[in-house]
Every structure is written in C-alpha cells, then in structure tokens.
Amino acid sequence: MQWFGIASGVFWSITYLLLIKRGYQDKACGMPMAALALNISWEFIFSFIHPHGGFQLVINIAWFVLDSILVVQYLRYESARRPAGDSAAFFYATFLSILAVSFLAILLATREFENYGGHYTAFGQNLLMSILFIRLLLDRKDLAGQSLYIGLAKMLGTFCASVMVFAYAPESHLTVFFAWAILCFDLVYIGLFIRQSRRLGINPLLRW
After folding, report:
1. Which of 58, 87, 131, 180 has the most CB atoms in a 10 Å sphere around its CB?
2. Count of helix runs (H) and strand runs (E) in the chain
3. CB of 13 closer than 8 Å to CB of 62
4. What residues does each domain of the chain span?
C-alpha cells in the first residue's frame, strides 16, 4: 500500500506543476483562492508543526514549496484580474483573512479530533477544492489556468490516496463518502472542461 501513497504524492505534484505551468502561460492562477489557502495551511501544519514521518514528510514539504509558487501567482495575477471596484488593499486583506481562518481551522480540527495523520482534513479540503474548481471554470467562462491534465492528475492522486486510506482505516465511512464525492465532482469538472474547450474551439488534449 505504500506504493499508492507514493503514487498519490507523484500525481498531486504533477497537478501542482501543471497549475504553475498554465499559470505562467495564461497569467492567471488556476487554483481557487480558498482551496489554495487550505492546501498550503495543511502542508505547513503537517510539515513543520505536526510533521509526518518518512517519505510523506518529503512529499508534504515539496507540496508546500509548489503551493508557495501558486500563492505568488495568485497574488500577482489575480490582483490584476480583480473586479474594477475592488481595491488592492481589499484583495490582499481578503486573501490573508481566508488564509488565517484556513490555517486555524485545520490546526484546531487536527488537535480537537486527534487526527494527526491529517486524512480527514485532507479529504475534506479536497472535496471543497473539487467543487471550487468547477465554480472557477464556470465563473471565468474560459480556460485560464486550467487544463484537462490538471483534472486527471488531481483525480488520480486522490484515487491513490483513497486506496491507501481504505486499507488502513476501512471502517471510516466519512472517508468513503469523501472519496466518492470527490471522484464525482472531479468527473463533472473534466466533463465541463471538455465542453468548454469545444465551445471555445480548443482541443483539450493539446492543452497542457
């Protein structure tokens, strides 16, 4: 089962790298703000405050570095894309507020429920991320920051993590719910991405 953990780490790293690549190409961050705040908070907590052991710690730190690049992209590109009526100060204050709330929510949930493995918070924020990716795609009405392969890599990374967690905690009905819900929303995202690509006259297979 360790190989599923490694595969999950690899697929999620690919997801982040593809997001970074498309971000620089499109001058837009493909990671929704709340999802980004939750992700980097989780990675910081389980890298430096309640660090995991072994290979997972290496993966956590690598994810934290990659998400830090996405934070820079978000602050740079999405500030320029913000609504005309919103000031830069409001934009940055909103991001910092959501980041602080996300960090405290994950840290307190970890300690309250003694979930130092972090799988409940990881799957919970993953489900939210899947929903927010759909919302971002529909709101932008274009493909800025997105690609089919981002959705596929995210889905495969979550699938591998789900198999690993099922093996160690088969009695966790909440994890089973999260895993199936995430899979459903990821498939919806992939379907919507393909539809939007065709509407825009873009071959989704050629967009990396």
Report:
1. 131
2. 8, 0
3. yes
4. 2-206
148-168 helix and 2-26 helix, angle to the nearest 10 degrees: 160
Q: What is the arithmetic mean of pLDDT over 185-202? A: 98
Say which DSSP state 115 is in: -
pLDDT tens for residues 145-176? 999 999 999 999 999 999 988 887 778 899 99
Give this prediction's pTM. 0.95
Of the CA atoms within 13 Å of residue 164, those in its CB half-sphere come to 19
Residues 6 or more apart whose CB falls under 8 angstroms from that of 43 comprise: 60, 61, 63, 64, 67
3-state SS, residue 81: coil
Nearest to 32 by CA among 113, 139, 123: 139
